[in-house]
Description:
- The protein is an all-alpha fold and 305 residues long.
- The protein has one domain.
- The protein is built from 13 helices and no strands.
Amino acid sequence: MGTRKSLDLFAFGCMLLFCIVMASQQVVLKAVADDITPVFQIALRYGIAIMLLVLLIRTKRSQVKLAPENRLPAIWIGVLFTLEFLFVGEALTYTSASHTIVLLYTSPIFAAIGLHIKIPNERMNSFQWFGIALTFGGTALAFLGGEDIKLNAAIFWGDLLALLGGAAWGATTVVVRTTGLAALPAKQVLLYQLLIAFVVLTLWSVWTGQTDVNLTPAVMASLAFHGIGVAFLAFLLWFWLLTHYKASQLGILSFMTPALGVLLGSWWLDEKIEPNFVIGTGLIIVGILLVSSHGWFTSQVKRFS
């Protein structure tokens, strides 16, 4: 594969669109939660995405064979992907969309810690550990605050579930990076995740009685947005960008997503943004940037020194 390009205006526009779509996920899920539960909607969106992805794979005549040594890791990433969105779906029942998206995007921190343990050449330096401390300090600050103690207990539980979703996402990255799955096409890895998540989340929804749906126009629009726009087109756009542009630069732009999620939650759902949450979110984003973009920052310092 050829050398990946530096970001240009087109790539920035694509990333801005991608971040807006990803930031809208939890907001849209929350907006129609009275007519369809978030967990069941996530399950259905993966059913839609599976059909579209299988059609794409068949059209391109791609191979989806799985070597024996990759079967267990494929199951693991499917389970972790399922847990991520089970936690997200349940979190939205208790806390705001803004809280959910910010705490979900702590995933790079958990991935960095896991890779530090598993891969010797990915060990973090003191600068990155400072970023981790900053992120967890911001997370603790974001957990605090509020006026109603009873409400705080519910919000705290929802925030904790969202944070666990971030941990599951980070663990998925570690499994992919440390196994043979890293050499597989992205569409194939995504298919394994979608299949397991669709089956398990559907069964969970049935078992917990969350399958009631009031099929309003808003619900149908939400399902189309999530199944086609998020779980299919947005992921394909991300993978396409990764094959054409430098991943480190794309990664930096991806941190627009939590900030956009907070703004969308406030604008669309009239969610109250607490001062402690604003400060905590800022610390989280700065901490993640320090950890994830250390290599890029170092190269820029060397470049201008």
